[in-house]
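Researcher: Let's do a round of design. I'm pasting the structure tokens now; please hold your answer until I've finished.
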């Protein structure tokens, strides 16, 4: 309206009124452009904030996916570790059994089942040490069977074992 009035007064050659309405028109136009720019700026800020929020949500989603994958991997590692622990326990049990068997074999004569020389030496060392420590007396008896091979040859090893070791038990 101000623009039309300004143009009308200009045609009527009333330049003062034309200038008045033209200035009013310019002020209204400037106000309009200013408000439009403010709205555009607000819209741009809201778009920026919205995009930033969308990016934050996407980052959160990706981190959540990454965490879920890491948790699954951790679960698999825990299961593998539990299986390894179980296998280790089984192997330790087997090792203890084998060590017990080796200890028995290291002390026992395979043919007679009696204590072997090495184990007797260990026992004797311990017995001598105890006798010295406590001031006790110690007596040792040794039996030497001559011609024992003839008994084994005539009656076989089981017969020789009965003659030579019948009253003695294993280690």
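Researcher: That's everything. Go ahead.
Model: Designed sequence:
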């Amino acid at each position: 309206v101000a623009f039309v009035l300004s143009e009308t007064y200009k045609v009527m050659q009333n330049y003062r009124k034309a200038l008045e309405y033209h200035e009013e028109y310019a002020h209204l136009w400037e106000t309009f452009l200013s408000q439009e720019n403010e709205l555009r700026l607000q819209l741009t800020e809201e778009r920026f904030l919205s995009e930033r929020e969308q990016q934050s949500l996407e980052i959160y989603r990706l981190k959540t996916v990454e965490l879920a994958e890491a948790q699954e991997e951790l679960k698999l590692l825990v299961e593998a570790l539990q299986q390894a622990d179980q296998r280790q326990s089984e192997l330790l049990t087997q090792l203890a059994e084998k060590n017990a068997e080796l200890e028995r074999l290291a002390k026992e004569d395979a043919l007679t089942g009696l204590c072997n020389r090495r184990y007797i030496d260990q026992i004797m060392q311990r017995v001598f040490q105890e006798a010295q420590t406590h001031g006790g007396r110690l007596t040792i008896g040794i039996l030497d069977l001559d011609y024992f091979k003839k008994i084994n040859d005539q009656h076989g090893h089981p017969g020789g074992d009965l003659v030579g070791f019948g009253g003695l038990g294993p280690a």
